[in-house]
């Protein structure tokens, strides 16, 4: 099954590792995969986006406008910034953490979190909003917010890949001393994702 | 990653010597070779691209397969050896990996390396995907040895930084260097150059014919409409042709120079119109126009020259789809409308705790109310141009801060000139400018921002770090000692976080006749263990906002009551904010909160 995923956030939040983990998990499950990253100057706290294309025949790694099946927003504003790539049937996972650009702190620009959340809620039927920052801290480090969000995507069934493949990808890519932290972070997200979907199903019934 | 694919392909092809200078989007090529080095490959980050190319040339003269890596503007620095090497040639296969950056996403220019290939008469390969880059780098080594010339591989950002699933063949080719043999062929002289020039021009025709048979160039499909393209634009075109279910004749160009003329003729045959899709300059478009003209063909060729596609900026799936839809008379499928509220821009900034912020701030404070110009250079510290620091008045190219400052001083003798340059950039091309200023007695203050690494590209070692890419320890080149030895009499090393000392040193330096130099020494935060963050005592904070307004640290936020909060996960406790707060509200670990 072809799945186009977009990871949007602020440089330094670990998007590159997240897209690598999805890529590695997809390869473990026998999919062809393409990823594309923002590397360079933007990594210094600028807007960054990673594209991951699982299965499918495309030669280009960039997900076209209106075609992403899943948008994982590592930060509220950056999720909105990339909405135009999300398909009408696409799903959303949003870390509600707000990271003010310096331009906002200096009073040069506004950050209207309310309007952003409204827009996101209208944009997708299946959307999970979570405080990934706190879950990562509970798991042992706020740096693991990227893996929390991957766990949520898998737990909710928004990614066609298994928990086991991700745990293996973590083992394969990360140094051993970081395994336990990231397993814990993944499972924090996984449980939340699982629960969110169950609650929703219960609501519909 | 495309860059990793290139590195693994080079290792498979038996590369022996790899040199380069870091630059986005090329950096990971050399790093991947180093990471996968079994010890049989010599790998170095050279001091600059010219040096890298010359080291590699010497190794190639001696029969080794060699690779040089750099970004497009790096080739400007290495263009001197490049042009002559095209005449002299090589014995061992030599591949120059030069990454172009349409956009540009992380560069000063959008220059097109395919022109350098044409200019220097060297063959160039242009991959569309990481898989193709893996195949091309291997073919490039074989081609280089066959024709005795360096070969350029020119990936672009979207290929360099894209990952794909590739089956890597671990069987390494064995190429034992034969060693350097003394021969007059290695000494460039006018008479030799004339003879070689004739040979190279002949070779271009031969290469064009060879390339018409190359698997990297393909003509397929039929009809009266044709689409030609290369690089990532070709990948988008393939996706669009499939998505719109089009039946057109296509020409994929993997070797833009020398242009595969025969194959192009077979592509143009019977066509009424051609659309060319390539990023940056119209290299393929011009080649096709020339062939059509030469053969008197009645075919319309559209692309950049008739305004169909843009010269500047990178291409996208959407841009290519629109162009192809118009060209084939299809309607461009509409992109669903998404209305989003106005969003704040998020440009890159100096990291929280970055020592450059403290260095800039000290100079700014010291020069407050004085007439001063701050020339900047290439590196993380170019970001010092942003508000509220506003400390970069010029930025041109690597090393230019030092020399541009001298020119301004010649015209504005009453202005104080400060040239900011990073440690790696200082070694790269900064030193000749300093010698120039000393010898010509120009009053400038050289500010070396020494953070002990090449930070912007991901922390590569340089001669001031004491490490090499072979894992060995080397004696550090002492910047202060070097400056003194070339005649800079006033040299101070200062920790920029000691603001008092820093500000007073800057004032003193600005009064010195001739060249004075301040070396701000503090490591990049990526090199240190993160200490406990600073915090704000909300009882003492008077919500004046001065800390944020003065230094614009990305770890500091205003909360609802106008008071300041510090994000603990990104604060490196540099203390600059604490030194600014007039109420003593910001402090470190033992600070009362």
UniProtKB/TrEMBL annotation, chain A:
Keyword Aminoacyl-tRNA synthetase among record annotations: no
Gene3D superfamilies in UniProt: Pyruvate-ferredoxin oxidoreductase, PFOR, domain III
InterPro entries: IorB_Oxidoreductase, Pyrv/ketoisovalerate_OxRed_cat, Pyrv_flavodox_OxRed_cen
This protein's record includes keyword Oxidoreductase: yes
Keywords: Oxidoreductase, Pyruvate
Gene Ontology molecular function terms on file: oxidoreductase activity, acting on the aldehyde or oxo group of donors
Domain Pyruvate/ketoisovalerate oxidoreductase catalytic residues, every copy: 11-191
Designated name of the protein: Indolepyruvate ferredoxin oxidoreductase beta subunit
Organism: Thermoclostridium caenicola
From TrEMBL, chain B:
InterPro entries assigned to the protein according to its UniProt record, in alphabetical order: 4Fe4S_Fe-S-bd (IPR017896), 4Fe4S_Fe_S_CS (IPR017900), HACL1-like (IPR045025), IorA (IPR017721), Pyrv_Fd/Flavodoxin_OxRdtase_N (IPR002880), THDP-binding (IPR029061), TPP_enzyme_TPP-bd (IPR011766)
Domain of life: Bacteria
Cofactor-binding details, from the entry: Binds 2 [4Fe-4S] clusters. In this family the first cluster has a non-standard and varying [4Fe-4S] binding motif CX(2)CX(2)CX(4-5)CP.
Binding-site residues for [4Fe-4S] cluster 2, renumbered to this chain: 553, 571, 574, 577
Cofactor: [4Fe-4S] cluster
E.C. number(s) listed in UniProt: 1.2.7.8
Pfam families, alphabetized: Fer4_10, POR_N, TPP_enzyme_C
A GO MF label: metal ion binding
Domain 4Fe-4S ferredoxin-type: from-to ranges: 532-555, 562-592
Keywords: 4Fe-4S, Electron transport, Iron, Iron-sulfur, Metal-binding, Oxidoreductase, Pyruvate, Transport
Positions annotated to bind [4Fe-4S] cluster 1: 541, 544, 547, 581
Record's catalysed reaction(s): indole-3-pyruvate + 2 oxidized [2Fe-2S]-[ferredoxin] + CoA = (indol-3-yl)acetyl-CoA + 2 reduced [2Fe-2S]-[ferredoxin] + CO2 + H(+)
Chain's role: Catalyzes the ferredoxin-dependent oxidative decarboxylation of arylpyruvates.
Protein name (Swiss-Prot/TrEMBL): Indolepyruvate oxidoreductase subunit IorA
């Amino acid at each position: 099954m072809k799945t186009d995923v977009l990871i949007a956030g602020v440089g330094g939040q670990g998007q590159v590792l997240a897209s690598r983990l999805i890529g590695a998990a997809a390869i473990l499950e026998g999919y062809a995969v393409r990823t594309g990253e923002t590397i360079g100057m933007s990594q210094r706290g600028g807007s960054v986006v990673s594209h991951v294309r699982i299965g499918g025949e495309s030669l280009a790694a960039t997900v076209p406008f209106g075609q992403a099946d899943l948008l994982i927003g590592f930060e509220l504003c950056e999720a909105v910034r990339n909405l135009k790539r999300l398909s009408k049937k696409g799903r959303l996972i949003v870390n509600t953490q707000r990271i003010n650009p310096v331009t906002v702190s200096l009073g040069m620009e506004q950050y209207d979190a309310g309007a952003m959340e409204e827009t996101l809620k209208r944009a997708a039927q299946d959307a999970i909003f979570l405080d990934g920052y706190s879950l990562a801290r509970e798991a042992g480090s706020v740096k693991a917010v990227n893996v929390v969000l991957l766990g949520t995507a898998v737990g909710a069934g928004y990614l066609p890949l298994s928990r086991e493949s991700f745990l293996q990808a973590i083992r394969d890519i990360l140094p051993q001393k970081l395994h336990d932290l990231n397993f814990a972070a993944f499972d924090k997200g996984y449980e939340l994702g699982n629960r969110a979907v169950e609650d929703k199903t219960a609501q519909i019934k | 990653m495309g860059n990793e694919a290139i590195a693994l392909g080079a290792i498979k092809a038996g590369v022996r010597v790899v040199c380069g200078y870091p630059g986005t989007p090329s950096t990971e090529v050399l790093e991947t070779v180093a990471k996968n080095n079994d010890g049989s490959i010599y790998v170095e980050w050279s001091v600059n691209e010219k040096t890298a190319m010359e080291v590699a040339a010497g190794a190639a003269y001696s029969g080794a397969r060699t690779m040089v890596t750099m970004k497009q503007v790096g080739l400007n620095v290495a263009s001197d050896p490049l042009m002559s090497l095209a005449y002299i040639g090589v014995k061992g296969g030599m591949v120059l990996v030069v990454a172009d950056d349409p956009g540009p996403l992380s560069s000063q220019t959008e220059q097109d390396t395919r022109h350098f290939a044409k200019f220097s008469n060297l063959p160039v390969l242009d991959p569309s995907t990481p898989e193709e880059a893996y195949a091309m780098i291997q073919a490039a080594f074989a081609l280089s040895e066959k024709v005795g010339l360096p070969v350029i591989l020119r990936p672009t950002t979207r290929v360099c930084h894209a990952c794909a699933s590739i089956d890597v063949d671990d069987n390494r080719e064995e190429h034992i260097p034969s060693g350097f043999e003394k021969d007059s062929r290695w000494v460039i002289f006018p008479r030799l150059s004339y003879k070689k020039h004739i040979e190279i021009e002949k070779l271009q025709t031969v290469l064009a014919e060879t390339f018409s048979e190359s698997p990297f160039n393909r003509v397929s499909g039929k009809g009266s409409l044709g689409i030609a393209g290369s690089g990532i634009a070709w990948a988008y075109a393939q996706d669009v042709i499939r998505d719109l279910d089009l039946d057109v004749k296509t020409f994929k160009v993997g070797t833009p120079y020398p242009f595969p003329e025969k194959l192009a003729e077979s592509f143009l045959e019977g066509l009424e119109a051609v659309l060319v899709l390539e990023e940056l300059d119209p290299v393929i478009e011009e080649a096709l126009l020339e062939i059509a003209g030469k053969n008197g063909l009645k075919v319309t060729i559209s692309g950049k020259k008739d305004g169909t596609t843009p010269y500047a900026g990178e291409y996208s799936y959407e841009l290519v789809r629109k162009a192809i839809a118009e060209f084939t008379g299809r309607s461009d499928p509409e992109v669903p409308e998404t209305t989003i509220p106005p969003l704040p821009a998020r440009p890159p900034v100096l990291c929280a705790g970055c020592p450059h912020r403290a260095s800039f701030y000290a100079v700014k404070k010291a020069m407050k109310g004085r007439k001063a110009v701050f020339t900047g250079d290439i590196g993380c510290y170019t970001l010092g141009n942003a508000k509220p620091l506003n400390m970069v008045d010029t930025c041109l190219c690597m090393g230019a801060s030092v020399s541009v400052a001298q020119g301004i001083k010649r015209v504005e003798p009453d202005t104080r000139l400060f040239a900011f340059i990073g440690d790696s950039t200082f070694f790269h091309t900064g030193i000749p400018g300093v010698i120039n200023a000393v010898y010509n007695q120009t009053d400038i203050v050289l500010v070396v921002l020494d953070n002990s690494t090449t930070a912007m590209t991901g922390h590569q070692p340089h001669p001031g770090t004491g490490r090499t890419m072979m894992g060995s320890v080397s004696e550090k080149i002492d910047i202060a000692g070097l400056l003194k030895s070339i005649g800079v009499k006033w040299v101070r090393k200062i920790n920029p976080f000691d603001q008092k000392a820093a500000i007073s040193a800057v004032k003193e330096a600005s009064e010195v006749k001739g060249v004075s130099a301040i070396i701000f020494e503090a490591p990049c935060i990526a090199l240190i263990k993160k200490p406990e963050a600073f915090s704000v005592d909300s009882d003492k904070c008077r919500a004046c906002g001065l800390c944020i307004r003065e230094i614009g640290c990305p770890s500091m936020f205003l909360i609802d009551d106008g008071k300041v909060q510090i994000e603990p996960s990104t604060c490196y406790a540099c203390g600059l904010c604490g030194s600014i707060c007039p109420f003593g509200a910001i402090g470190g670990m033992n600070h009362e909160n």
